[in-house]
C-alpha cells in the first residue's frame, strides 16, 4: 500500500455559464519519505490538486488516501505551507508557532518544547518574543515552516513557499527546508514553477500537461543529486542535463497551449 495514493482525480469548476475541467484522471502513488514536485504550465491544476490532497476541495471524481484512509476533509496529519506566511501580526513569533497546536488541542509541555527546539534549529529562538513585522521575509517563512511542523504532520504540502523571496534567501531556505524534512523523515509535495528548485529538492518531478492537467511525464532525479543539498545540486553536471530535458518538454507544452 502506498503512503499517499492519488487515484483517478478529476476536478471541474462550474459557473452559471461554463464548466472548466481543471485536472483529469490524475493517478500517482507516493512512498513515505519521498519529496515530490509538481511542475507544469500556469493554470494546469497543480494547486487545485494540492487543495484536494489537503482535503480543502472535494474532487469531482476519484479519491485521495493517506495510509489507506480516504481524505475528505482537512486532517492534522497533513500540513499546508503557502506562498504567504499568514502570521498574525499581533502575536509573537512563539505564539504564532504554537497556534496550530492550540487550535487542534495538542498544546502541552512536550509539544511546546518540540516547537521551541524547531525554532532553535531554524535559528529563530532568539526572536521568539519578537513580532512578525520585525522579521525579514525569509525569517517569516521559517516561522511558517515551524508552525506547520509543530503539529507533527506526516505529509507536508508546499505551495510555492519560496516564490516571493529574493534569490539568495530562496537558495538558503531551500537548503534549510530540505535538511529539516530529511532529518524529520517527512513526506512532501511541492508546487513550483521553478525547474531548478524542483530538481534540486526532489526525488521525483511530476510534469503536468496544459489544462485539463494530466500527468505528462514523471522524472526520476538521480541519486547523486538526491544525496546532496539543493545549493550543491545546482552545480552538479546531472542537474544541467535534467534541467535541459525538462525545460524542453515544458516549453513545448507551453507553446502548444498558446497556439
UniProtKB/TrEMBL annotation:
Keyword terms: ATP-binding, Nucleotide-binding, Transport
GO molecular function (one): ATP hydrolysis activity
Organism (species): Exobacillus caeni
PROSITE patterns per UniProt: ABC_TRANSPORTER_1 (PS00211), ABC_TRANSPORTER_2 (PS50893)
Lineage, opening ranks: Bacteria, Bacillati, Bacillota, Bacilli, Bacillales
Residues annotated as domain ABC transporter: 4-235
Protein name: ABC transporter ATP-binding protein
Pfam families tied to this protein: ABC_tran (PF00005)
The organism's place on the tree of life at top rank: Bacteria
CDD domains, sorted: ABC_NrtD_SsuB_transporters
Amino acid at each position: 500500500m502506498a503512503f499517499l495514493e492519488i487515484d483517478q482525480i478529476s476536478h471541474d469548476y462550474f459557473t452559471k455559464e461554463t464548466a472548466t475541467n481543471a485536472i483529469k484522471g490524475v493517478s500517482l502513488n507516493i512512498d513515505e519519505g519521498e519529496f515530490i514536485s509538481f511542475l507544469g504550465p500556469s493554470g494546469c491544476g497543480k494547486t487545485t490538486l494540492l487543495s484536494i490532497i489537503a482535503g480543502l476541495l472535494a474532487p469531482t471524481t476519484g479519491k485521495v488516501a493517506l495510509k489507506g484512509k480516504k481524505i475528505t476533509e482537512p486532517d492534522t496529519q497533513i500540513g499546508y505551507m503557502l506562498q504567504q506566511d499568514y502570521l498574525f501580526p499581533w502575536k509573537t513569533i512563539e505564539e504564532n508557532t504554537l497556534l496550530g497546536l492550540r487550535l487542534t488541542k495538542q498544546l502541552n509541555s512536550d509539544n511546546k518544547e518540540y516547537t521551541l527546539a524547531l525554532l532553535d534549529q531554524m535559528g529563530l529562538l532568539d526572536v521568539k518574543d519578537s513580532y512578525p513585522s520585525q522579521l525579514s521575509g525569509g525569517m517569516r517563512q521559517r516561522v511558517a515552516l515551524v508552525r506547520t511542523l509543530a503539529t507533527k504532520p506526516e505529509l507536508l504540502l508546499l505551495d510555492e513557499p519560496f516564490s516571493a523571496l529574493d534569490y539568495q534567501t530562496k537558495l538558503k531556505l531551500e537548503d534549510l527546508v530540505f535538511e529539516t524534512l530529511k532529518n524529520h523523515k517527512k513526506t512532501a509535495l511541492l508546487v513550483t514553477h521553478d525547474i531548478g528548485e524542483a530538481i534540486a529538492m526532489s526525488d521525483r518531478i511530476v510534469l503536468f500537461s496544459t489544462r485539463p492537467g494530466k500527468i505528462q511525464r514523471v522524472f526520476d532525479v538521480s541519486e547523486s543529486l538526491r544525496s546532496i543539498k539543493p545549493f550543491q545540486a545546482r552545480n552538479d553536471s546531472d542537474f544541467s542535463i535534467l534541467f535541459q530535458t525538462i525545460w524542453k518538454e515544458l516549453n513545448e507544452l507551453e507553446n502548444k497551449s498558446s497556439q
